[in-house]
Protein 1
Amino acid sequence: MSIPTPPPPEHNVTGIDLADRSHLRYTGPLIDIHAHVMVTRPGDPKTGPPAGKGPGASSEQAETMLTVAEEFHIARTYSMCLPDDIPVLRQRFGDRLGFNGSIAKKKANDPDDEAYRLLERFLELGIEIVKLWSAPRGRERGLTVDAPWRKEAVRRARAAGVRIVMVHVADPDVWFRTVYADTAKYGTKPQQYEPLEQMLQEFPDLRWIGAHMGGDIEHPDHLEELLQRYPHLYLDTSATKWIVRETSPRAAAVRSLICRYPGRFLFGSDLVTRHGLPRDHYVSRYWCQRTLWESAWEGRSPIADPDYTPGENEATTPILRGLHLPDEVLRQVYYENARRLLETSLAGVKTPPPNPLP
C-alpha cells in the first residue's frame, strides 16, 4: 500500500528555496509598522484564555518571528496585542518591539467605558499608536471608524500625547463579491471610505496610517486621490497574500504611485505569532514582501492564497512581480518614513519612549 504524499506547507507550495535571497539588494534597516507579536498558547489565540495566561503560554513564537525579522534587517517591529502581553514581551525583547493599541468593544451594546478603560490601560503601558479596526464585518459590533465612542477615544489618546492612528477600513475587492455580497448589510467598498474621510477631516493634526495599502491596492487611482486630499495620511504595505496578489497585476501603476509619493508609504508585514508555526512561515512573508518591493523577481508566490482563483491550466498561487523600487524610495518606505513619523509623534507621549531608532 502506497503512502500518500503529504501536501506542501502553506508557506511554500511552490517549493522554492526561501534561503536564496540574492535578489534582495537593500542592506539598510527596516521598521515593520504593522505586526501582531503576541504571547501564544495552544489553541486559537482569538478564542482561548487571555494572551499570556493559561496553560502552555509562551513567548517562544515571538522569539522565532523576531529572529527571522532580524535576518531580514528589521530593526524594530510594532505589535498589536492584548495589554497583558506588553509587559511580558517588553521585558524579553526590549526595544526590538514597539506597541500599537487596538481600541474596540466586544459587542455593539457594551458601554463606551469599556473602550475607554482599554485605552487607558494601553496608555499606561506606553503605546505609540492607536488602531481602529473597522473592516465591514465589524459593523455588527459597532466598529465603524467614526463611531462617537471612537472619536472620543481618539481625542483621549491625542490628549495623552499619541499622534498616530492606524485604520483598517476595507478588505479585498474579491471579498465584496463573496463575503460582503450583501451590500445592504455591509455597504459597498467605496462607502467604507466615507467615515474614514470624515475622521481625516476632523483630526487633521494627527497622522493616519491606512493599513493594507489603505485597503484598496486594487485601485491605485483612488489611493492617489486620498493621498492628494489628505497630506496627513500614510499607507502601509501589510497583508502579504493580498498585497502580492493585487499589486503584481498592476505593478507599473503601483510603482509609479509610490515613486510620486515616496514619503507616504510604510513597510508592514501583518505577521501574526501563533502556537506551533514553523520558522519558514515567517520567512515566507518577509521574503515575499521584500521581493515584491525591491527586486525585479517574477514567478509564482510561494504562499497558498485561498482568495486567488487560477485560470485553466494555471498554477495555484498568484504571480509575484517585483516592482524594483529605486534605492532612495526603498530607504524611505522601509525605514525613514516610519522613523520620522514615530520620533516626531513620541515627543508628546507621557510614558518614556523606547530608545531612539538606529
Protein 2
Amino acid sequence: MAIKKIIVLYGGESSEREVSLESGKYIFQSLEYLGYEAQLIDYPEYFSLKQLTQEDFIFIALHGEDGESGELQKILQQKGIPFSGSSFQACVNTWNKNTCKEILRKNKIPTPKWITISSLFEMQMNLDDVFFDQLRPFNELFLKPAEDGSSIDVFKISNNKELALAISDCINPRRPFIFEESINFKELTVPILNGRCLPAVEIKTSESFYNFNAKYVNEDTQLSELILSKDEKNKLEHICSRTLDVMGCKGWLRVDLLQDINNNFYVLEVNTVPGMTSHSLFPKSAESIGLSYNNLVQEIINAK
C-alpha cells in the first residue's frame, strides 16, 4: 500500500529536545513539499497510539532516549505500525555506548579503549587513580554519558582540574558515563542510506572537538568530503558496513568515527536517528552526491 499519511514525531523530553524540534520542522516542510498528508506531533505530550492505524507511517525525528533507545520502536512494532529507521533491538544495541562498544569489540571492529562508571556523583577519583590504568598512556581522555547525544555532557580532559570542572559542569552527573581514549587526527562520519555508505564527511572545528557549539551554534565549522585513497575508502566502508550488520540496523543511520595519523579508523558510536537540521551531517553528505534534502527524506521513507 502506498504511503499517503505521515506523522512526524519530534521534540521529546531528552536533553536533545531543541535539536529534535529543528529536525522535525525541516522534515515536516519537506513532506508537505513532497505531497504527503503530513502531521507534526510533539512527543510524548500530544502523541496517542489510539490515533494511529496501520495506514500511517511514523517518521521518527526524535533524537536522544525518546527516539533512539528502542522503546518507541518496540511499541510501534507490537502495533504493526511502519516507521523510519532501525528496529527495537538495533536501537538497544546502539543507544548505550558501553553496549555498542562491547558489540564492536566482540566482532573485532576497532573502537577507542574505554572504561565505564555508574555515576559521577561524589566521584573521588582523579586521573592518577588505578581506575584509569586501562587507558594509559594518555595525554587526554573524553568523558561521555553512556546514553545521550549531541555532545551534551561530553568533555575533553587532560588534567585533574579539568576533570573536576567537567563533573561540576555536567547537566546530570547521576547516570552512567564512560571515559574514552582520545585519538587525535581527523573526526569523521559516514551516513548509511538503505545499506549504502554515502561519502564520508570530515569535520573541522575551531573548538577542541566536535562539541555542541561546533554542531549547532558556530558558523565556522567545516564539513567536507573526506579525501581518501581507494584502499582507505574500501577499508572505511567495510568497517561501517560491518557495524551496520552486527548492530542489526537498517534504513538510515550514521556511523561516527576517528582516523588516526596512521590512517586507522575507529568507530565511536552509531546514531539511529541522525540530525536533519541545517547544520546536520547526513544532509551535507547526501548533498555531495546530488541528493537534495527533499529527495533524502523520500529515500528514508523508501528505505528497507
Protein 3
Amino acid sequence: MRSLMQLFFLLVILVGVRPPSLAAEPPRELNLKEALRLAAKANPTLKISRLEELIADQEVVRARAGFLPQVKATLSHTLYDDPTKIRIVEQVSPFQGPGVRLTNRNFWASQVAAEQTVFDFFATSSRYQAAVLGKNISRLDTQKVRDNLFLAVCQGYFRVLRAEKMLLVAGQEVTQLKEHLKNARDLYEFGLTTFNDVLQAEVALADAEQRQITAKSDLTTAVSSLNKILVLPLDRPLKLAEESELAVPVTEFPQAADTALRQRPDLKAAERRIQQGEKAVTQAKAGFFPRFYVQAGQTWQQNDVWVHDSQWFAIFGMQWSLFSGFDTRAQVRQARERLEQLRLQRQDLSDQVKLEVQTAYLDVRDTAERLRVTQKAVAQGEENLRLNQERYKEQVGTATDVIDAQTLLTKTRVNFYNARYDHQMAKAHLLWAVGAINELLEEKKP
C-alpha cells in the first residue's frame, strides 16, 4: 500500500511539472520583410486572386479551341410504325405502284464528323486575343492585391510598434508620478507641504494608470489586427524589430507621378481592359457577316435495301444570320459603349493615381519635419521635468509645476512616436502610390 501511494505521488509530480522544453517559448523577433513574406504566402485574399489567374488561364484554353476542329459523334436507334417508302409514278400510265421501301422499320444509325471554321471575320481570333489580355489583367490584378496587402502589412506593423511605444510612455508616466507621489508624501510627513500636494499627485497617478490600461488594450487590438493579416492566431504575441531600411527614392513630385503612371499595376490593367474592349467590338461586329466552314465525316445506317450502309462526305458551307431581331446591332453598340466607359475609367484612375502620389509625397515631407521638431522637444521636456522635480524637492517649485512638466513630457513623447511611425507609414504609402512597395520583399542583388 505504501509503495502504491509513493507511485501515485510520483505520477502527480510528473504530470503537474512541465518539462522545460514544453514551456511557452517567447515570440521570435519578426522584421518587416518576414512579415511581408508571411502575408504573401498565406493571406487568403491573395490566394483568391491567384486562383483568378488560373481561371483566366483556362479561359485562354477555351478561346484557343476555336482555332481547332470540332469532332462530334452521334449514335441513335429509330423505331417507325411503318418503314419509309416512295411511290414510283410511270410517265406512260397514271398507275401508281404500292410503294418501294427505303428504310427498315427498326434500325441503328451513327455519324462521326469533324468541322473546322475557315473564316468568321475575326470573331474567333478576337475572342482569343481578348482571353490573352484577360489573363494579363488577372496577373496585374493580383499584383494590385499584393501591393494593397503589403501596404496593410506595413501599416499594421508600424501601428503595433507605435502601440508598444505608447504603452512604454504610459508606463514611464506612471513610474514618474509614483516617484512624485512618494516625494509629496515624504514632504508632507515632514510638514513641508500641504496634503493637497499628495491628493494632486494621487489624482494625476490615477489618470495616468487609466491611460496605461487603454494603451494595453490598444496594443492587444493592434497585434490581433496584424496577426489576422499574417494569418496567425489572433492571440499570438508578436515581437517586432524596428524597421530602419524602409526608404523611398529622393525625387520630386513630377518624377514620382511619372513613375507611378509607368509602374502602377492598376493603370496597366486599365490599359489592357481598353484593348480587351476593342477586341470585344471586333467580335460583336463579326455577327453581321457569315461564317465559312468545312465539314467531313462518315455516316452509317442499318438498312436492308441500301447498297451501302456507310458513306463518307465532305461539305464546304456557310452560315449567315441574315436577321436576328437587331440583337447583333445592340451587341455592337454595347461593346462600343463599354469601350468608352473603360477609357473614361482609365482617365479618372490616372488622375486618382496622381492625387495619391501627391498626398503621400506631402505626408512624407510633413512627417519628416514633425519628427525633427518633436525629437528636440522630448529632450527639452525631460530636462524641464528634471528641473521642476529638483525645484519641488528644494521647496522652490510647486507640485503643480511637476505635474504640468510631467504632462508636457508625456505629450511630447506621444507626439514624437506618432511622428516617427506616421513617417514610416507615409513612406510605405508613397512606395505603394508609385507602385514600388513590392520591392520591400525583393532580395537585394550583390
Protein 4
Amino acid sequence: MSRPRPKKISQILPTFQNVAQTSHYMVEFGMPSDYGKKDNLRSFLRGKGIDYRFHTQDIGLLCSSAVLPGSTFATTVVNGEYQGVTETIPHTRNFTRIKLEFYVDNEYKSLKFLEHWMEYITGNSDANPLDDAYNFRLNYPEDYRSQSTKIIKFERNYRQTLEYNFRGLFPIALDATRVQYQNSTVLKASCAFSYERYICGKATSFSQSQNSDQNRTSLDARNPAHQRSNFLNGTIAGNDQRLDEMASQLSKNGIYRKTNQTTNQFFSNDGFSGATVTEGVK
C-alpha cells in the first residue's frame, strides 16, 4: 500500500466547495385520478374546501421539512455453505416511512388536507356521525394511494437535481398538533407517510425517451459531441472571453471548431436562470 501524498489546498478545495445544501428542495403531491368513481379523493377534498391547486402546488410549498427516503434489507443468516463462514443474505427490501412537516396556513388548509385524506381512507357509513352506530368502512387502496408524489432535491443554481418518485404513498400517522398560550410561533403539523416503494431518479415517459430516467446518464451527457447547449461559467467577465475560452477548450478535444459568428449570434440569455447559453454550433 502506497503512503499518502500531500495535496495543496487548491487541489482539495473544489471538492468541499461543491457540497449539497439542505434548504433547497420541492415536494409535489399527486392525488389518485379515479374519474370513473363518483366519490373519488379529489372530489372528496374539494368538498372539504381543498381545491385542486392547493394539493398540487401550495401544500408542497408549505412543507417546511422533508426527508429523502431510505430502505433496508431483511436478511437471513446462512451457515454451512463454506466451512467456518457465516453469511448474511438479503431476501426482501423494506422501504422506511417518511415524515413531512407542514406550515399551517391561516385557513388551516394544510391540516385539513391531511385530516380529510385520512378520513377518506377510513370511509364512512350511512349513519350520522353524531350517532353511536357510526362506523368506518375502509376504501380500496387504489382509491387513496398516490402514485405520483415526488420529492425533488436541487441546488440553488437549479442545475443539479435528485428526484424521488413514490408509488403507493398515503398518510399513516398524523401527529397531534400542539397549541399554547405562550409566545406565538408558526403552527406546524407533521405526518408520517407509508409507501410501497420509491424510484430514485426521474420517472416520466419524456425522461425515458431521453434515456435520463432513474438517474441514467443521457446521450448528451455521455457524448459531448451530441450536446446542443452548454451552461458556461457566469463569473467570467464578458461574452467575448467566454466564447474564446469555450472555443479553444473544445477545439483541443476535437469536438467543436471555432466559428466566425459574432458573440450576440452565438450566445443567448436563459430567462429562467439568467445564465448564458450557447447554441452549440459544430
